């Protein structure tokens, strides 16, 4: 499956993504966002990649690679807690390198994923959880029509202190 935009495309994970996924999952700078607690071995990530062929209805998640048209791997966009009965899923996105952020790649990836979810997966709603301090993600999701529907106080314990997290939701009308 490939979802193409003007500057990027979304594609399925491949075995060749092992090193990229390993770097992302072991980058302590983003653990706060992903709620990761411990490093992942290449062995575990390789096992994960061997099982990504599972259908979203079985796995309850989908991870796609954000790639430039020059085939550079820029980041990842995920559907998680996929709930077909209630027609909803969580969304997470990461553009890995700081120099690739704020260039519209995340916006375009999110637009492609939203369209895919509402058109092909027949979902009714998407939601995301964003740390109160993550103003770039708040702006990204708000600009795509997500509404802030709640604040989870002291939700995540990070580096010795509790942080608030917003809950955003997009309903397909």
Automatic annotation (TrEMBL):
Name the domain of life this protein comes from. Bacteria
In this protein, which residues make up the domain named N-acetyltransferase?
8-169
Extract the InterPro entries matched here: Acyl_CoA_acyltransferase, GNAT_dom
Q: Which GO terms describe its molecular function?
A: acyltransferase activity, transferring groups other than amino-acyl groups
Q: What is the protein name given in its UniProt record?
A: Acetyltransferase
